[in-house]
Amino acid sequence: MSIVTVQLGQCGNQIGYEVFNAICSDFHSTHGLCSKKENESYQEACKERFFSEEKTGVPVARAVLVDMEPKVISQTLSMAARSGHWKYDHQSHFCQKQGSGNNWANGYSVHGPRYREVIMNLVQKEAEKCDRLSGFFTVMSMAGGTGSGMGAFVTQCLRDAFPTSFILNQVIWPYGTGEVIVQNYNSVLTLSHLYQSSDALLVHENDAIHKICAQLMNIKKISFRDVNQVIAHQLGSVFQPTYSSEGASQYSKSPLGDLMESLVPHPEFKMLGLRNIPQMSENSLAYSTFTWPGLIKHLRQMLIANAKMEEGIDWQVRPPLPGHPVPPKASPNKALHFNTSIANLVVLRGKDVQSVDLGGFRDPALYTSWLNPQEAFNIWKTPRAFNKYEKSASLVSNSQFLLKLMDNIVGKAWNMFASKAYVHQYTKFGIEEEDFLDCFTTLEQVISSYASL
Amino acid sequence: GAAAAARAPRVTAPMTQSVVLQVGQCGNQIGCRFWDLALREHAAVNKKGIYDEALSSFFRNVDTRNGGDGADIHKGKIFSLKARALLIDMEEGVVNEILQGPLRDVFDSKQLITDVSGSGNNWAVGHKLYGCQYREHIVEKLRRTAEHCDCLQCFFVIHSMGGGTGSGLGTFVLNVLEDEFPEVYRFVTSVYPSGEDDVITSPYNSVLAMKELNEHADCVLPIENESLFSIVSKIHQMTNSGKLGSTVKQNSLLTSSAGSIKTEQEKPFDAMNNIVANLLLNLTSSARFEGSLNMDLNEISMNLVPFPRLHYLVSSLTPLYTLADVNVPSRRLDQMFSDAFSKDHQLIQADPKHSLYLACALLVRGNVQVSDLRRNIERLKPSLHFVSWNQEGWKTGLCSVPPVGHSHSLLALANNTCVKPTFTELKDRFMKLYKKKAHLHHYLHVDGMEQSCFSEAISSLSDLIEEYNQLDATKGAPRTDPSRLKIAM
């Protein structure tokens, strides 16, 4: 089954390109570390999932590119074509002349409805190219106007047009300190709207990825391209083919369905975080070896202590002991020590995956009490190594990972809203104060739900 | 084998266009420098002589081989570039000079609106008399100019506040823009008179114009000659003193016309006007050229104007010059960021560091990455005061193409209460005259002018000053965040 990717706005298109590039690069990797047969299976599955065939033999990404101004799409299309290994369908893009001006209301209320038909036609065309459609993967930032506002609108349209398909929104959380001044408004509006139509939101934070670039990848002058490439690696580590159940003989046909089933048991809880280890510069790769017990131990502690990367993990944090009273949960704006999960998914790739002991993740203490811990934890694996990493482990978690972030962003947006600053820019395009209040209410609800786990 | 790389697909939607309206003597002199430096900038980037999207934002490409008004050529070779501009002046001197000078081919006669006698430094003459007289002309020429645009995004009005034409007719045109093209952004670059201005009635003209700017502009970039002059002096000093002088790249000077079409002797105001021209080039760079984080013109208005009337942006440009050595350690890069916040680099007499920021935009050009930007914001933040509801009020843009002669540059736009003294001083000078009713009769005898025009104008200015006062009062006050919504579980 195939995934159709919708790349929205500058961020969405820049990241989308890196994702397909990473996937294609991994596809061609000669460091698969597995049998030829295994590798061929993997490649077959990868191709079906992400690319369609063209007469020339160059794989064509299953993607629709949307932006309200032309510069980024133009660059994205030509960069892909230059690679020689893959490309986009040159018909499969839509852009206009004038961007959304970082204005969510402009993206959602003006551009969305105006260009709905054209965009949905492009999506329909891509969907029809798939023998079987697993669902949609949208890539967007929350801070701007097109990815965020128009992205929210397009997600709604996807839900309406494809009621039985899965929709996963890859959402980029902006840097805490300004890229865009009205980013907190745009984020609040985006999150609350996506919550209505999306199946799950998979979040990447610019601040966290930036730190990974600085401390783990040792990049001196970090560019957006560097950040995007780390994100692409992390996404690839989850969405490249895997066996999603013990004893499965075929690569999973339904990655999005499997993901939703594993991680989203309740529609109130849709926020997913992603961690991937090990992460390092290509130069260091050749000299590093890891053991699975070491990797799993780190990954588990990253989950428990809500660490964003494998350095600087707080090892003091422990899950509550069985039989002991659960320590009273601090309110969201105090540092939460122990990160409670609803459900977790670990993806393992590479050497000796069969022998990995994941008992630590089945510990009921990690999970909220209302789910059977056996159902709350799932594993996907493949012996085929990913992107030159001999061993790679990823964690997709529906937990309190994003609680503090959400609380922060809602707090800042509320603070600004109280002074009514910038509101006139939104009402100009039809988003009224009432609409803002509805969005705040929705998100306070989500925050409250996650806080009470 | 690998398939040959496909030809880059043509993305068929061209970018947006902007139109420049240069009004009055000052407006036209600055405008002239703008067009000259714009051509220089595009020539440096566009080596193949192809008419590309970046050029189309400010220039039409016209086939003039058969004379007359040729058709617009939308792609391919450059034939003849024509500025998307209207040149308006009620005297002929400056415009005629432009049309006889090296830029004559960049404009055609249909883009001009001129008269002979001037406005006598009288806002009422410019606004009421000439406004009324030329309204239809103006609308007709605007329509024509707009028709040549695929997607008109922005009008740039360039004028001075202290005289009669730029001030009066310039603000009249602003009204017309709002009436006829309500969807198109209106950015106004306004040169404010100094206290020693030799036009006695400049306070009247400026305050009358301020009301129009308050009500009809989306963004105003105030400029003061004293600041431009200080920057010119500083550059002169740096480039003519000691060992530094010989290593400065001439075409990198913020004040320089080097490399542009203009060949004759630089006029005294050219250096100052080049600074303003560079301001406009940098402001529009991210809309014209690519980068990892684009900042379009509509984003500037969106992020920097939290309340409709507070749309006055204090600007600064750095560096003032580049030294010839190519090796640029990041220390120098950081110096560029520091300079952007120093009062010596602001284009009005203002000190943003000691006043209150409502919002700040940083538009970086050249080889600068997001980590450089973030490092400097973190470094400078503690010394700046931001309003309580916008503590992280930063808007940033990264454009890959640097200005001519530089490897990188920075434009800072601040919505900051430091603009207030410019307005309070203006108000004081106005009141000095108004109390004595000095020269009022020159204004009141113009058809359509009444005493109420004056009282409304000063009232509008006072209200604006009061808004800034209220914001200043919050500076340093203890911060109480509003309580959040409570959810019943």
Automatic annotation (TrEMBL), chain A:
It comes from the Eukaryota. GO terms for cellular component: centriole; cilium; cytoplasm; microtubule; nucleus. Coiled coil: none annotated. Its main location: other. GO terms for molecular function: GTP binding; structural constituent of cytoskeleton. InterPro entries: Delta_tubulin, Tub_FtsZ_C, Tubulin, Tubulin/FtsZ_GTPase_sf, Tubulin_C, Tubulin_CS, Tubulin_FtsZ_GTPase. Keywords: Cell projection, Cilium biogenesis/degradation, Cytoplasm, Cytoskeleton, GTP-binding, Microtubule, Nucleotide-binding, Nucleus. It is found in: Cell projection, Cilium; Cytoplasm, Cytoskeleton, Microtubule organizing center, Centrosome, Centriole; Nucleus. One of its GO terms (biological process) is cell projection organization. Residues 47-247 form the Tubulin/FtsZ GTPase domain. CDD domains: delta_zeta_tubulin-like. Its cofactor is Mg(2+). Transmembrane segments: none annotated. Pfam families: Tubulin. Belongs to the tubulin family. Dimer of alpha and beta chains. A typical microtubule is a hollow water-filled tube with an outer diameter of 25 nm and an inner diameter of 15 nM. Alpha-beta heterodimers associate head-to-tail to form protofilaments running lengthwise along the microtubule wall with the beta-tubulin subunit facing the microtubule plus end conferring a structural polarity. Microtubules usually have 13 protofilaments but different protofilament numbers can be found in some organisms and specialized cells. Acts as a positive regulator of hedgehog signaling and regulates ciliary function. This is Tubulin delta chain. It comes from Chelydra serpentina (Snapping turtle).
Automatic annotation (TrEMBL), chain B:
PROSITE patterns: TUBULIN. One of its GO terms (molecular function) is GTP binding. Residues 75-291 form the Tubulin/FtsZ GTPase domain. The keyword Magnesium does not apply. GO terms for cellular component: microtubule. GO terms for biological process: microtubule-based process. InterPro entries: Epsilon_tubulin (IPR004057), Tub_FtsZ_C (IPR008280), Tubulin (IPR000217), Tubulin/FtsZ_2-layer-sand-dom (IPR018316), Tubulin/FtsZ_GTPase_sf (IPR036525), Tubulin_C (IPR023123), Tubulin_CS (IPR017975), Tubulin_FtsZ_GTPase (IPR003008). Coiled coil: none annotated. Keywords: Cytoplasm, Cytoskeleton, GTP-binding, Microtubule, Nucleotide-binding. Residues 293-428 form the Tubulin/FtsZ 2-layer sandwich domain. It comes from the Eukaryota. Gene3D superfamilies: Helix hairpin bin, Tubulin/FtsZ, GTPase domain. It is found in: Cytoplasm, Cytoskeleton. Pfam families: Tubulin (PF00091), Tubulin_C (PF03953). Its main location: cytoplasm. The keyword Metal-binding does not apply. Its cofactor is Mg(2+). Belongs to the tubulin family. Dimer of alpha and beta chains. A typical microtubule is a hollow water-filled tube with an outer diameter of 25 nm and an inner diameter of 15 nM. Alpha-beta heterodimers associate head-to-tail to form protofilaments running lengthwise along the microtubule wall with the beta-tubulin subunit facing the microtubule plus end conferring a structural polarity. Microtubules usually have 13 protofilaments but different protofilament numbers can be found in some organisms and specialized cells. This is Tubulin epsilon 1. It comes from Chelydra serpentina (Snapping turtle).
